[in-house]
Amino acid sequence: MKIILVLIGKTDESYLNTGIKKYLDRLIHYIPFEMKVIPDLKNTKNMTEEQQKNKEGELILQQIQPGDEMILLDEGGKIFSSREFASFMEQKLLRGLKRLVFVIGGPYGFSNNVYHKANGKVSLSKMTFSHQMVRLIFAEQIYRAMTILKNQPYHHD
Asked: Where primarily located (predicted)?
């Protein structure tokens, strides 16, 4: 199985890029992982939030292939402990999915069309994080899940 992380806009902060790279470099030892960055929309000053979400939604759905399972990182999603998330990932691995696609939306969230096509939603916390910070937190949690599944000493209860 390959994990794809689709996200809107590049990461602007160098400290976030450094952290993301750290976990992506570690993850390659466990599972194929790829980040697909959809460029920020242009001329959003002339768009309503809804129009922006719809346009981003179209671009997100273009990244989804037949047979993919798409999980949205969304504040209304299921909250897991790290061990529960590792079990969630293990179930996906055992199902033999070719690609598991996680999506981080833009600053206004997802369009209704993306919500309807999603296979599930995961929340990283009841707190709200910037959509750029979520990238680092999620990369670390994927890495943590892989180390839990391999019984390696990274995670401590």
From this structure: cytoplasm
Please report, in range form, the residues annotated as the binding site for S-adenosyl-L-methionine. 73, 105, 124-129
pLDDT in tens, 55-69: 999 999 999 999 999
DSSP string, 19-58: HHHHHHHHHTTTS-EEEEEEPPPS-GGGS-HHHHHHHHHH
Phi, psi of 132 (to 5 degrees): -80, -40
Residues with Cβ < 8 Å from 34, sequence gap 6 or more? 2, 3, 4, 5
Residue boundaries of the structural domains of the chain: 2-149
CATH architecture of 2-149: 3-Layer(aba) Sandwich (3.40)
Which pTM value belongs to this model? 0.94
| Below-50 pLDDT ranges, the chain | none
pLDDT of residue 128: 87
β-pair type (69-79, 33-38): unpaired
Given this model, what pLDDT does residue 107 score?
Answer: 85
**The pair of three-digit structure tokens given for residue 51, joined into one six-digit string:** 């129009």
Reported as type and span, the H/E element at residue 133 is: helix 131-149
- Could you list the residues known to form a binding site, using ranges: 73, 105, 124-129
As a whole number of angstroms, the distance between CA 64 and CA 53 comes to: 17
